[in-house]
Amino acid sequence: MQNAFKHLLIMALLAAQAVTSFAQQKTEDTVYMRNGETHKGEITRYVQGETLLLRQADSTLLELKDSDIRKIVQGTEYVSEPEVSEPSRSKAGDAKLRSKGFYNTTALSFAIGNSDSDGLILGAGLGNVTGYQLASWLGIGVGIGVDNYATRGETIYPLFGELRSYFPSKKGYGYYLALAGGYGLAFKRQSLDIVEAKGGLMVHPAAGVRIATVEGLDLNIDIGFKYQEASFTRNLYDGDVQTRNLTYQRIVLRAGLTLWK
Questions:
Q1: Is residue 1 part of a domain?
Q2: Where are the extended beta strands (E) located within the chain?
Q3: Are 250 and 169 members of one domain?
């Protein structure tokens, strides 16, 4: 008899625990709105195409228009723990253009134009600019580069300052203006018979488009005009010396990446 009583007592305790556990698990309905809001509670009335009446946890009744409702989930389990929102994840398609802060731009350039009597000549270069964008309409930077203007070894190393101005951008892309100015250095190159070299004034205005690839990284493509003064003295094969005082005037196409911090 005592064993039977014990078994009954254990079964009763287990049943009470199960009932208590079930009572602690509440279910509720979830209503997702088109504006991003979420409401939880018990749906007490719903007229499709008109309104929905939701009793919230504090017993207040909330009336919602059916046209504002995106989705309804009924009977979701209620967990009495604070909700933790997931951190937002940046996607390449949702990347935004920045117009303020520190930036560093590296660009590859291709030039076409003339230098005095040389006629039409192609050239290439590489440049890097570091600066700070104070506002969308004003950024200030300093840069260094290397430009090869001819196959004769006439290479210039410009040191310059740059001003930038960004136009209001649409989602993912925008336009900008840039103005660089400074002094191009030139050096003698004995291997190419250049025994004396002198740089000069450099000016380079440009206009372009920038495209957001990922958060904090833009692709830049622009076109501009570069003016560069220089002088080269070269030993010729017959023993003569030739001095060329040059003014490079080139149309320049650049493509590069800007990193924001």
A1: no
A2: 27-33, 38-46, 51-55, 61-65, 69-77, 101-115, 121-135, 138-148, 155-166, 173-185, 194-198, 200-214, 217-235, 241-260
A3: yes
Nearest to 64 by CA among 30, 95, 98: 30
19 pLDDT exceeds 50?
no
Given the structure tokens 């008899």, which residue do they identify? 1
Q: Which domain holds residue 215?
A: 97-260
Q: CA angle, corner 257, sides to 89 and 216, nearest 5?
A: 25
Residues for the chain: how many in total? Answer: 261
Residues 6+ apart with CB under 8 A from 98: 133, 216, 218, 260
- What pLDDT, in 10s, does the model give residues 153-207? 789 999 999 999 999 877 788 999 999 999 999 998 888 888 899 999 999 999 9
